[in-house]
């Protein structure tokens, strides 16, 4: 987007809604805002209809703040709680059909590349565990195998939250939920391993109670997807309603689950490391001089 | 973008971007002997298509693969094989959301598998063109010609046209984009033909010059924002109405669905100009009419020739667009007819049902003859139906239980 759009037409500023004025004057477009500045700028996602204490909403807010170029980012999603928030953000959100977000994103990413060439247009999929691992599984895996260049983020609350608490493929074994009246009979699907097998260039698992880490993962994932290949982030975003987590214990639960079975993991392919180092100056991935290694 | 400014310039293949009316109506034509599948390729070659997504299913596989050759030659911006028809149509949607001109093809069970996408395309106002080479729908498994899938497509909100010949196909692929992409229409087009009969037979088709092509798609003529983040950062939605059980949410949905169907109606004026009317009439003042679409029209025309040999004068109405449905045209065309024979290639007789719901004194409509599952429709069967309708004795054909 030309940032000229994010200005007032001369003489019209006083007539624009306050919402729009705030977005132009205090929004993140064209600026490098970070999660540590939350509360001091107008966020792209602000109002939302999500439940009180929803960890997913916090994660989505953090993710959107972390987008490296919000003025050139388009999000894609599918049915589920997440889209109720994402669709109210001040960037375009594409909703296609049930579980086809990675197909839509494949076409969108390719269509935008044809129209805009090398000018980056970041396509970011945010969909739930059901949308990603169950109904959308085929299109997710195929988009990765095809090396489609966009980011897939799974908002993993381990349940179909929006439809009232049914078991999903990402539910842990034994959990008693609707449609699993005797407890889930099989293990939580290992989508991280599948992402690796399918050739994702960047894979991370995160929880939302470490905002800087979420920000770091999202930025890397979006940047790598521009040129290197598909990227996947799997975020534990608990459903405090269906899992009966008291509102004030949601972050505590995230910490417990992180320590127990949702540890932070990050895989960066060698190509992606080199790309981040060369293109975006990531020091952690910069090759150390051979001499230095020899001396050490 | 001023779309007239690019007329006369060339695209990356060196084709001259031509005023579509000049290209389709005035430019010299070269007769060529091609299969229907090859004709699809030749039309797409001249259509300035940005993205095509392909998937194999008989009888459209050949056309979909031939478009891959166009991509290899550089005539299509991007092309790949999806993983199922549902995925393909989603991928097409994504590319169209991003402002690309999109083309795809499908058939029979593929159409059914992709079906969730078609009302979504219409609702999202994506002017994608989908060729539908109709075939049987399972089960039992059939790959043979059968038009039953059109009955489903007609209720999706898409424009639905039914080509009779390869020439129709060639012209309508190109003209279809022009109608679909009009700002007051901006709807997807299901361009149907009868599988095998059109796709796998050779015919002489008059082609426009290969060095001329349509102007590229301009996504900023869309009535809804292009999803390319080139527009001001407004919040497009407050309180997603999908979750609300209140009057406003119902009214929003209702008015939008009405708008989609109104857009299909608004395509009439463009379609009439491009296709020279929504129906074609031959000997329309005859007392007996044969009315249908697709290759059933061709068979009807043969039956009329046989009947003429016996001194019976029968008229023909070829329906070109099923959506929009040519309601007024059909009322006018059937005003004087006392017998209306509707031959069809499907078991349910959707064409006869539509027609009966359209014209007064619907008992004039004979809902048949119908064949399905790949059966051919010999003109003699139509002849017999005509004679039966008017009370003439005729020889009983084998296999009809007479």
Structural commentary:
The complex is a heterodimer of chains A (296) and B (402). By secondary structure, chain A is α/β, with parallel strands linked by helices. Chain A is built from eleven helices and seven strands. Chain A has one domain (49-295): Rossmann fold, CATH 3.40.50. Chain A has helices at 18-26, 55-66, 81-86, 101-116, 129-134, 137-145, 191-198, 211-227, 250-260, 270-280, 290-295; strands spanning 73-77, 93-95, 122-128, 151-156, 202-206, 231-236, 265-268. A seven-stranded mixed β-sheet of chain A has the order 2-1-3-4-6-5-7, with helices on both faces. Chain A starts with 17 loop residues before the first helix and ends with a helix. Chain B is an alpha/beta fold. Chain B has a seven-stranded mixed β-sheet, sandwiched between helices. Chain B has a five-stranded mixed β-sheet with strand order 11-13-12-15-16, with helices on both faces. In chain B, helix 10 (295-309) links the parallel strand 12 (288-292) and strand 13 (314-319). The radius of gyration of chain B is 22 Å and the shape is globular. Chain B starts with 15 loop residues before the first strand and ends in a 13-residue tail after the last helix. The chains are: A alpha/beta (296), B alpha/beta (402). Chains A and B meet through helix 1, strand 1, helix 4 and helix 6 of A and helix 4 and helix 6 of B.
SSE topology sketch:
The complex is a heterodimer of chains A (296) and B (402).
Chain A: H1 18-26, H2 55-66, E1 73-77, H3 81-86, E2 93-95, H4 101-116, E3 122-128, H5 129-134, H6 137-145, E4 151-156, H7 191-198, E5 202-206, H8 211-227, E6 231-236, H9 250-260, E7 265-268, H10 270-280, H11 290-295
Parallel strand pairs in A: 1-2, 1-3, 3-4, 4-6, 5-6
Antiparallel strand pairs in A: 5-7
Helix pairs in contact in A: 2-8
Chain B: E1 16-17, H1 20-26, E2 30-35, H2 36-45, E3 51-54, H3 61-73, E4 78-81, H4 85-97, E5 102-106, H5 109-113, H6 117-124, E6 129-134, H7 148-153, E7 159-162, H8 166-180, E8 189-194, E9 202-207, E10 212-213, H9 247-275, E11 279-282, E12 288-292, H10 295-309, E13 314-319, E14 321-323, H11 327-333, E15 339-341, H12 350-356, E16 365-366, H13 379-389
Parallel strand pairs in B: 1-10, 3-4, 3-5, 5-6, 6-8, 7-8, 12-13, 12-15, 15-16
Antiparallel strand pairs in B: 2-9, 7-14, 11-13
């Amino acid at each position: 987007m030309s940032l000229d759009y994010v200005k007032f037409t001369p003489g019209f500023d006083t007539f624009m809604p306050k919402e729009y004025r705030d977005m132009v004057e205090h929004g993140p477009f064209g600026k490098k805002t970070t999660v540590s500045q939350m509360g001091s700028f107008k966020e792209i996602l602000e109002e939302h209809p999500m439940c009180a204490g929803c960890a997913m909403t916090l994660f989505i807010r953090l993710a959107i703040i972390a987008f490296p170029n919000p003025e050139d980012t388009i999000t894609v999603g599918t049915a589920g709680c997440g889209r109720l928030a994402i669709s109210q953000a001040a960037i375009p959100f594409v909703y296609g059909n049930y579980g086809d977000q990675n197909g839509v994103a494949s076409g969108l990413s390719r269509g935008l590349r044809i129209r805009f060439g090398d000018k980056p247009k970041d396509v970011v999929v945010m969909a739930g565990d059901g949308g990603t691992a169950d109904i959308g599984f085929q299109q997710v895996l195929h988009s990765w195998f095809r090396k489609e260049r966009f980011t897939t983020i799974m908002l993993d609350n381990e349940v179909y939250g929006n439809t009232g608490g049914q078991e999903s493929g990402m539910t842990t074994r034994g959990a008693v939920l609707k449609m699993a009246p005797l407890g889930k009979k099989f293990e939580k699907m290992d989508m991280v391993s599948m992402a690796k097998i399918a050739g994702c260039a960047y894979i991370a698992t995160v929880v939302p109670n470490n905002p800087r880490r979420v920000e770091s993962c999202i930025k890397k994932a979006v940047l790598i997807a521009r040129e290197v290949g598909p990227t996947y982030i799997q975020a534990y975003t608990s459903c405090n309603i269906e899992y009966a987590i008291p509102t004030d214990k949601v972050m505590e639960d995230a910490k417990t689950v992180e320590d127990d079975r949702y540890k932070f993991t990050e895989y960066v392919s060698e190509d992606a490391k080199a790309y981040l180092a060369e293109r975006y100056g990531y020091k952690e991935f910069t090759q150390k001089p051979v001499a230095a290694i020899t001396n050490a | 973008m001023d779309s007239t400014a690019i007329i006369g310039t060339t695209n990356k293949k060196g084709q001259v971007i031509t005023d579509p009316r000049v290209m389709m109506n005035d430019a010299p034509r070269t007769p060529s002997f091609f299969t229907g599948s090859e004709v699809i390729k030749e039309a797409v070659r001249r259509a300035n298509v940005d993205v095509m997504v392909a998937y194999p299913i008989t009888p459209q596989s050949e056309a979909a693969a031939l478009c891959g050759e166009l991509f290899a030659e550089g005539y299509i911006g991007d092309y790949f094989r999806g993983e199922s028809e549902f995925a393909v149509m989603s991928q097409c949607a994504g590319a169209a959301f991003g402002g690309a001109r999109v083309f795809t093809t499908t058939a029979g069970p593929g159409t059914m598998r992709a079906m969730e996408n078609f009302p979504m395309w219409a609702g999202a106002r994506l002017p994608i063109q989908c060729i539908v080479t109709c075939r049987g729908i399972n089960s039992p498994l059939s790959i043979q010609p059968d038009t039953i899938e059109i009955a489903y497509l007609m209720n999706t909100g898409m424009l639905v046209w039914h080509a009779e010949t390869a020439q129709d196909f060639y012209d309508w692929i190109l003209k279809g984009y022009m109608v679909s992409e009009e700002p007051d229409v901006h709807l997807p087009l299901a361009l149907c033909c009868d599988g095998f009969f059109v796709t796998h037979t050779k015919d002489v088709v008059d082609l426009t010059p290969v060095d001329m092509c349509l102007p590229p798609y301009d996504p900023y003529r869309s009535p809804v924002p292009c999803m390319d983040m080139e527009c001001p950062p407004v919040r497009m939605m407050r309180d997603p109405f999908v979750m609300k059980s209140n009057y406003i949410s119902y009214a929003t949905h209702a008015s939008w669905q009405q708008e989609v169907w109104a857009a299909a109606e608004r395509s009439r004026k463009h379609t009439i100009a491009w296709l020279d009317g929504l129906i074609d009439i031959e000997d329309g003042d005859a007392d007996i009419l044969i009315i249908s679409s697709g290759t059933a029209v061709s068979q009807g025309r043969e039956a009329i020739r046989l009947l003429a040999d016996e001194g019976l004068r029968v008229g023909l109405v070829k329906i070109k667009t099923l959506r929009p449905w040519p309601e007024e045209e059909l009322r006018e065309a059937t005003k004087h007819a006392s017998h209306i024979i509707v031959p069809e290639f499907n078991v349910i007789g959707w064409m006869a049902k539509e027609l009966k719901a359209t014209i007064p004194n619907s008992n004039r409509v004979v809902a048949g003859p119908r064949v399905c599952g790949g059966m051919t429709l010999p003109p003699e069967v139509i002849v017999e139906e005509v004679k039966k309708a008017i009370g003439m004795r005729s020889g009983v054909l084998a296999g009809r239980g007479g």
